[in-house]
Amino acid sequence: MQPLFRALSGVLAVGLFAGASAPGAEANAGPSGRSTTTQGAIDWKPCPQNAAVECGTLRLPVDWARPSGEGFDLAVARRKATDPDRRVGVLLVNPGGPGDSGVDFAVRRAKSHFSAEIQAKFDIIGFDPRGVGGSQPVKCSQKLLDQRPSAYPRNQAEFDRLADFNRTLRKDCRRHSGPVFDHTDTLSVVRDMDAIRRSLGEKKINYFGHSYGTLIGQQYAEQYGDRIRTMALTANVDHSLGAREFLVSSAATTEDSFHQFVEWCDRTSSCALHGRDVTAVWDGLLARADRAEIRDPENRTSFSPQTRSHSSPSKRSTDRMGKSWPHI
After folding, report:
1. Do residues 96 and 235 lie in contact, with contact meaning Cβ atoms separated by under 8 Å?
2. Interval 259-282 mean pLDDT
3. How far from 21 is each of 48, 70, 82, 106, CA to CA, in Å?
4. Element (H, E) at 195
5. pLDDT, position 302
6. What is the DSSP string of 206-241?
7. Cβ–Cβ under 8 Å, residues 59 and 73
8. If we measure between CA atoms, which residue out of 105, 147, 83 comes closest to residue 306?
9. DSSP states of 128-151 as a string?
10. Radius of gyration for the alpha carbons in the chain, expressed in angstroms and rounded
11. What is the pLDDT of residues 305-314, one digit of tens each?
């Protein structure tokens, strides 16, 4: 992922992010027909993890339809532009997930992901979406989570067991998380993001979203299109697809990518599996995982139907087995 981020940020520095966006006070005007609220300021302090980055919280309503109701603290981090004289504006970032921490991204990852040019011109703003990390995270019983069945049922009985577990888990998480559990939708996150913009005193924002973060960007553009200066989205998710269509299209794309890899390996002598039946190797690896015959040498855990993910080979090898992959 890092090379993609760096290549993208280089393009943005030259093109999309050229220009200036002056911050300034603005009335809290919501989308047409919606009530407005007074936006407080963020109390910035050095982040405990990195004093060169500022951290703070912004008090926001749990339910935007009831702005004077119960509130929660949204965790925010700011990595200031390194060249104030060339500062263009703010760059809000969501690294995806859903569930990845924008605060962690700003504190630990932004410096290696964005070019020096981007860092010179923009305050990089990361935030933990409501229900994530430092923003009143959704909580569930660990005891119940330890009982979860396989996420990949093979018959109706296993499917029914998984559905029953999911219903039980939903009730458990709601009980442990409080009111925010029912208000972690993307549209609420989008309104939180615009609250950040107002709190920072910016008329317009620049936005970078990856994976799930692209859905946030898309909905922000629909709701607040006149408040965007530039927006860059990678690993784009089509928000017009339902859950079934999304999964089917993702599976078809993954299968196509796998077959392209097989063809590449067949004609490329440097491929570790060159000269072998790659599809058979892959099927055999999955069969061994089903029998719990594959162990991670770093933590001695077995890979089984409960732990392995039916994703692309590259995804599994990187996320599950890391540097041990070549030895399997």
Report:
1. yes
2. 96
3. 30, 34, 17, 21
4. helix 186-200
5. 59
6. EEEEETHHHHHHHHHHHHHGGGEEEEEEES---TTS
7. yes
8. 147
9. --TTSTTSS-----HHHHTT---S
10. 22
11. 555 444 343 3
